[in-house]
Amino acid sequence: GLSHRGRWGPGRRSRETIYFGGFRNVLVGYDDHTYTTRETMRGFRSIYEDSIIGAKTAHLIDLPAPRFFRKLSLMAWADYRRYHHKQTWDDEQKDFSQAVATNRLDLSVQLKSLVSGGHSLALQLQNLVEISEKPEGGGASLYWGVGPLIFHEWAHSYGSLRTTLARRTRIPSMKERYSEAFGLQAPNPDLKPESAWQAVFDTVLRFDDWLHLSGAVFGYLVDDIIDKRLTNDGLLQQRNVGRALLAGGEVGVRMKFDFGMKARFGYSYLFARRLSDTSGDGPGDELEESDKLSGRTPHAVFLSLRYSPISRLKLFSFFRLAGPTPMTDPDTAARVIVGSRLYWNGGVSFGPFDGLSAYISATNILDAENETLPGFPEQGRTLWAGVGYTY
Asked: What angle do CA 265, 310, 211 make, to 5 degrees?
């Protein structure tokens, strides 16, 4: 990539970036059709080739501030990205090659002001355009979404209050649309973006430097939310399944002690329910409140500790408990509950000399079988060691 920043006279700044990325993965296997190395053996070869080309530019201009305004600025930016994906697969049953691409353009403008009394305001308008090129002979589809945003913050030495109201869109990735998951998932080139009305309220309270309290509540009303469904061929497929409500809250505590200890504690709650089903697999009207969205964890709590008895020695530990979580079984598409997941990471770092540091750390110290999907545990206990030198 190549990036440039510049000033164009008083109160005018700009930034431009161009970049390219490529990825190629070749997988050659000799296995049976269920990938369990039993009975009839067969070979296969899978090649993924992905690339991205992008360009971004942003310009900021300071405007004359009217009465009661301390500062007024206008910012506009454009972000273009082209994703290209090619898959080649051959075995004794099928041999094919498929290429797809998508073009995305984000055009946004924002007006921001600092007002007397510690207030700041921002108005933003986002235009999001996607032209998705489907597989050979499938034509192209166009999506255009407009997203307004209103932001207000009141800040003081002992805390702040922030409010955000917005309409935002998430375009599904190439993987969500076209991944076959080694024959377990059916692609869906017609998968549409998710759009949501959002409201977020958060606050921070500061008690000198030793204690900070934070809290937030939020609500998202999502249209065309994406979830997995079972096809007639017995495969899972990503689909737009209707409207959903995501709402919840977070609380956090940050403490700093004189003897070198820092501690952070937090809890989050998420209410995630479908309000209607338009996928063709459900009743099509209002659903029961118990119809929980797959993959959304309702409860999570964490504790982070850092201790430095001397300047060159640091000890750290992190605990997180999350779950239980409703999931979609990748084999049967049935709704199941995955149990709570406990994470404990920790380590120590030591700098014997100026500029030199060494560390030893471990993740999943308890070697817990934490599952993010039924039957798919995450990595077990892992040890890390390294050295670094800063000059």
From this structure: 30
What tokens were used for 259?
């003897």
Q: In this structure, how many other beta carbons lie within 10 angstroms of the beta carbon of residue 174? A: 16
Name which of 36-50, 199-213, 238-252, 260-274 the model is least confident about: 36-50
CB-facing half-sphere around the CA of 179: CA atoms within 13 A: 12
pLDDT tens sequence across 320-373: 999 888 887 766 767 788 889 999 999 999 988 888 889 999 999 998 888 877
Q: What percent of the chain has pLDDT over 90?
A: 48
61-73 burial, b for 16+ CB within 10 Å, e for fewer? Answer: eeeeeeeeeeebb
Task: Please tell me the pTM assigned to this model.
Answer: 0.78
Q: How far apart are CA 126 and CA 108, in angstroms?
A: 4
Cβ proximity of 254 and 278 under 8 Å: no
Tell me which residue of 25, 139, 131, 115 sits closest to 66, measured CA to CA: 115
pLDDT tens digits, 203-215: 999 988 889 999 9
- Residues linked to residue 271 through DSSP beta bridges, in sequence order: 247
CA–CA separation, 99 and 96 (whole Å): 10
User: Given the structure tokens 């999931």, which residue do they identify?
Assistant: 327
Q: Which amino acid is at 71?
A: K
- Please say whether the beta carbons of 161 and 168 come within 8 A: no
Q: Is 311 left (phi over 0), alpha (psi -120 to 50) or beta?
A: alpha
Which band of pLDDT confidence, cut at 50, 70 and 90, is reported for residue 44?
Answer: low
Q: d(Cα 103, Cα 87) in Å, to the nearest integer? A: 18
